[in-house]
Amino acid sequence: RLKAAANCLREGVGETTTYLLPEFPDGHRRRIRTNNMIERLNREIRRRTRVVGGFPDGNSALMLVCARIRYVTANEWSTRRYLDMSRFDDNLVEAN
Fold first, then answer.
1. What is the C-alpha separation between 84 and 32, in angstroms, rounded?
2. CA atoms in the 13 A half-sphere facing the CB of 10
């Protein structure tokens, strides 16, 4: 069982470290390496659920979490550009 996991890890190292190549812009490396947006959303969800305390059922907790995710993605994330992909367009043309 562990041998299969080790083989999977060994085979995927090249793909998972591609962002470290010098062709990647520095800003992209930092944003690919971290998941600050997801961590921030998780902190916000934890904060909101602690305020409520106990939920009558799992459905009400799920509704609160989904409502917060909908709000964040509609307002905060929709106006931000996380990665500038224009530099990759130039690299794709050169690769062809």
1. 12
2. 6
Find all residues with CB under 8 Å of 65, minimum gap 6, and list them: 45, 49
Question: How many CA atoms, within 13 angstroms, populate the side-chain half-sphere of residue 44?
Answer: 17
Measured in whole angstroms, the distance separating CA 9 from the mean position of its chain's CA atoms is: 20
Identify the band that residue 96 occupies on the pLDDT scale cut at 50, 70 and 90.
Answer: very low
Structure tokens given for 36: 């600050």
Percent of the chain topping pLDDT 90: 0
Phi/psi region, residue 48 (left: phi>0; alpha: psi -120 to 50; beta: rest), is: alpha
